[in-house]
Request: fold
Amino acid sequence: MFNTRIKVKQLLLAETVGQQVTVMGWVRTFRNNQFIALNDGSTNNNLQVVVELGLLDDATLKRITTGASLKIVGEVVESLGKGQKVELKATTVEILGDCDAEKYPLQPKKHSLEFLREKAHLRFRTNTFGAVFRLRHSLAFAVHQFFNQKGFVYLHTPIITASDAEGAGEMFRVTTLPFDNTPRNADGAVDFSEDFFGKSTNLTVSGQLEGELGAMAFSEIYTFGPTFRAENSNTTRHLAEFWMIEPEMAFFDLEDNMNLAEEFIQYIIRYALEHNLDDLTFLDQRLEEEEKQKPAAERAEFGLLEKLRFVVDSQFERITYTEAIQILLDSPAYKKKKFKYEVGWGIDMQSEHERYLVEKHFKKPVIVTNYPAHIKSFYMRLDDHCEPGKQTVAAMDILAPGIGEIVGGSQREERLEKLQARMKEMHIPEEEMEWYLDTRRFGTVPHAGFGLGFERIVQFVTGMGNIRDVIAFARTPKNCEY
Ligand code: ATP
Ligand code: MN
Reply:
């Protein structure tokens, strides 16, 4: 039986001095044939195990190599060394799995993130990725706790979808049709009636539309699931497969929506600060060292912990799109022609613009609202009383320092005729959307919601620069290992 073991985190926390315990884990380092640093993933802190001279024969000692797995029975004693309060004095050491030190890719030294990305199947065993993925777990747990406490219903929206009207991005097709001898109609087009579902289907880009149906019954729902976008953007913030959290609330307007999003982001960050301070402190130091390598002008203004505490304690800035454009037009950056893309009312702001607003101008998260209708989705509510030629919608994006957009949301168009007119304008076939329009026909209500890219918030909280380093096995263009 294995389950009598104590986890390293527990052992280091508790008053265990004097107890006989069994621990299991992987060797990080073995020094002087005497000191094993053992890690079992429960914490970033290794357990120091002391193997007294003469306890083990030479053959066994040789097998205690970095990466090997061990079962150790011993007594917890106060540590004389620096860096830890307690250590384990081994009475028996059993090797569960050998690890050939010559072949093991993880040497006891610092590896680059790029190297570890190639070894993603082993990188959980490093300090950095241990911290990142424990934090990812905590944040996911906090997401559920937040919505559960507020009485939201967790709705599992489908992953395979027949609806392609969302328009949030390029979709991956789901099909069982053969590539050769593909069934075709008289006009040569692929005959999807022969396909598995009898129609053309895709992987979902968003659960929002289905989420709205849930909100029209439960008042408040959220989804938290995988989302797929076949967009060919090789950036540090885009994945082809990512996880999205999408709450949808009846009886909410744009302001209620912003309030919820802000409270939500602060809640999950506070949760991480309260439950994962060890891991955050490790990442804070890691980032500080990384920053030191950069030229002074490019260094981040805040350390990681400082940034997180600041975000939790201060209100997000709220400005309209129109105000945002004016700030850009008035900026020294614009006057000195520092922006690559043009600035003016009606543009879809580029990441350089968003970064200017967040990192240079406000130096904190910013919520931008009331975007021009023509750059936003059909389901966003048309604002009343707009200047001629400047029709806006009740949309809101939350922009974060270092990441850019982390949330995209809106109040939804609840007025049937207006929604139908918008769909016509945007060439969205109504026949395929009758089920969606029914919510506006039968007891429609003002409602709102948003989507938060989970990996983007994990990036923000861990300070990891590349989104590929905050998901276990990243899927990006031309890359799908494991
Ligand atoms: P972006 O402009 O950054 O591409 P978007 O406008 O396409 O984002 P939405 O369609 O509003 O984003 O999606 C909601 C949220 O999902 C975004 O705010 C972002 O946090 C996240 N997101 C969008 N696309 C991706 C992606 N390819 N990988 C990871 N997260 C994403
Ligand atoms: Mn996008």
